[in-house]
Amino acid sequence: MKRVRKAWIGGVLTLLMVLVTACGSNSGNNTTSSPGADGESASASGGSGQPLYIGLVNPVTTFDVFNLDNAGVFVNSLMSDTLVAMNSKYGFDPKLAESIETTDNQNFTIKLNKKAKWSDGEPFTADDVEFTFRMFTDVNVKTLLNMTFVTGLNEAGKREEGQTELGFFERIDDYTFVIKTKNPMETNQFKSQFGTYFRFLPEHVLKNVAPVDLNKNEFMMNPTVTNGAYKFVKFAKDQYVQMTANEQYYEGAPNIKEIYIKMMPATNLAAQLQTGDIQLTSPGVGLIPVQDFEKVANMANVTTGYGDANNPNIMFINTKKFPDPKVRQAIAYAMNRQLIVDQLLKGQGELVDGMLGQNHPYYNKDISLYGYNPEKAKALLKEAAWDLNQTIEFVVPTGNKIREQAADIISENLKAVGLKVQVTKLDFPTTYQRALKHDYDLTIMNLGFILDPNSVLGLFKTGVSFNISDYSSTEVDELLVQGAEELEPTKRFEIYKQVQQMLHDDVPVIALFADKQMYAAAKNLDLGKGLETSTVGLTNNVAKWTFTP
After folding, report:
1. Where would one find the signal peptide in this protein (predicted)?
2. What pTM did the predictor assign?
């Protein structure tokens, strides 16, 4: 079977499914305080000099590693390592795992890095991994991630009530364990779905917490012990997260002593880069607005790079509100998406119809995109006998001005073909919760870049929690199972091409646009590499970054 990412974020959403989940450049509060102004300052034996300030526009809401959206994933990537980390070439860098190996593609032996420690000096071991998975699979613990591809769990990715055995986990010794999958998986697929998503809990800190109390435990908002490059110091809601260098870090104490993640409206990023109040914009959750591209590119104190248009902004269509595919197709034909790219994005974007950007390795280039054709839209609505007096609620997350303006254009397009549209603008957390409950007619989200196609397209499997469109197709379900089990790359690609074509025809979603993303770093911040066309893996080497004011 497969692992399906239930968040944005986180996503994560992040995924960003991240969280999967969540939305690209959602702004935080309109006011920000000066981090550190209260006189509190972190200290560490590792690191040196001036603090580094990173601009982020999505509000951080939790540090619960089981329930992170895109902003949470980025912040936690500095404090909490995964087994492996995806790099800009879509390969995998070892982190907490020294190696991941298999001889049969169903039993994966994972050897931990013996140098890895928690920030309080306790070793990171297989006991922490087992404890984390016991909590994660307990029915009383809320999780936005899902692990249905391993043995011994039900379709919700949980142990049955009263089940104590972790059927998918075998502890070999303190630094070695085996994960067992229901069906064969290609090694990189396993690394993507398992190795890059899971962050771990310290057993020695949380072992006396009952599963039913875990999500609301104070640790989830105040993670006093971490295993990443940085330690948590302070969280000021809608203002900043303060971190200090982890002198116990297994890759060496970070060069930069302190990091502040500053939350602000996207429109403030350019000004704060120019004044030096921030030195880096965070990937995915700190994107510079397109209207500021030229201004930032001309700043003498900043280096810029452009990312591929890999993160489509997706309109989700509630299939229970619109059960007839002809109506959903009419919505697609009614939208003047090229106008959005030309006018709002100044040409810095691309059109796709589905969840994968044109540069995604699994993108189906054979799909014919829905063009702007209002007359075709009207004809389809007539064929479907759609009641034009029905009000359609279009729920739009606030904070990203381009997305809000795009929604306004789409709303007018839909009205022009006779649809009655009511736009409701809400903050992202509220939009996200309503989407999960299918309490909307149309909405927009950005799930971020996810390499494994089953983790993206699997969101359309019948009954999964992050199936925002409430879509159901027996054929798609069967193909998703085949794709998850297929090990031969060419055959796997063909399966996911079919899935994309079916989703294109049924239209549970339609991408509005995929924007090219600008990233910026101060010239006196050395990231150990340039700003590449992909910022995937940007923080993998954060301990090696240097900042010289």
Report:
1. 1-22
2. 0.77
